[in-house]
Amino acid sequence: MKSGMILKNGLSTLGMLILLIFFFCQTAWSEPSKKQATQMWEAQYKNKVLELNARGGQRTTNQLHNKHYLTPVGSCWDYDVTELQKCGCRLFEKASICCRTGSSSDCEIRIGNSKLIDCSKFKQPKYGLSGDKEPSECKQHRMSTACFNRKDLTFGPGNSVGPCQSSPRFICPKKDETMQEFWANKCGPTPEDCGCTLVEECSTEEDLKCYKDWKSNKAGMDCYTNPKYKTPYDREKCYKAASGR
User: Fold this and answer.
1) Which of 1, 48, 135, 232 is least enclosed, having the fewest CB within 10 Å?
2) Closest listed residue to residue 73, CA positions, set 37, 42, 30, 115
């Protein structure tokens, strides 16, 4: 009797082992080749892949094509992918390709962090598909991204200065505290008089024009610094008159 139970348990264990081996083999077989991964990327993002390097990171996933499952339905692998774009060459670090178990075609791509890199390594023009001269839209996007990540800027969109409902960006001695002092009329009449430095490259053309027009108009500045103009309506009416509008 005992030997029968031992044999039964042994067969069960062996069966489980075979299933596990089969599962992991299926997972391994489903990894797309470098050529398949490149074709998949170019088909989805419509840009030429200059380089694709496997980073490993094999793991199971319970999610595929925006559907969630209770058990793993596939596996993911990580890749570093360099793509030729309009504004240069972009490296996507540890982008993931996830495929359904047993398939190397039923897959999806998941991207995370990316950054522009030097195109010369790939013998491509400095600004990728745009050649060696940076288009204005590429420069604007580059500066916007760089400025968005800066922690030293204050004022900007949504913060008023004089007649400008949206002000340019500044670097101020005490950051937002200086901005609060400006609004409380503890310094001024401009942010620069509060010790702030105008950061033109991180400001829009419209905001810069509004601010500079106001700053160069002494009568117009008085509309926002003279206490006799008590209400926003009074100040706006005064400024329109001072600007000849």
Assistant:
1) 1
2) 30
* pLDDT tens figures, 53-109: 999 889 999 999 999 999 999 999 999 999 999 999 999 999 999 999 988 789 999
- Round to whole Å and give the CA distance between 11 and 89: 56
Distances (CA, A) of 58 to 28, 175, 203: 9, 45, 44
What distance in Å separates the CA atoms of residue 191 and residue 184, rounded to the nearest whole number?
12
- Encoded amino acid at 200, one letter: E
Bridge partner list, 197: 171
Range of the domain at 58: 30-149
* Dihedral angle sign, alpha carbons of residues 239, 199, 87, 46: negative
Structurally, how many domains does the chain consist of?
A: 2
Give me the phi and psi of 109, to 5 degrees please.
-110, 135
Predicted TM-score of the model (pTM) = 0.59
Q: Which of 149, 173, 188 is the last residue of a domain?
A: 149
Cα(168)–Cα(241) distance, rounded to whole angstroms? 24
> Rounded to an integer, what is the distance from CA 145 to the centroid of its chain?
7
Angstrom distance (rounded) from CA 65 to CA 107: 8
Looking at the DSSP bridge assignments, the partners of residue 169 are 155
Phi, psi of 158 (to 5 degrees): 90, -5
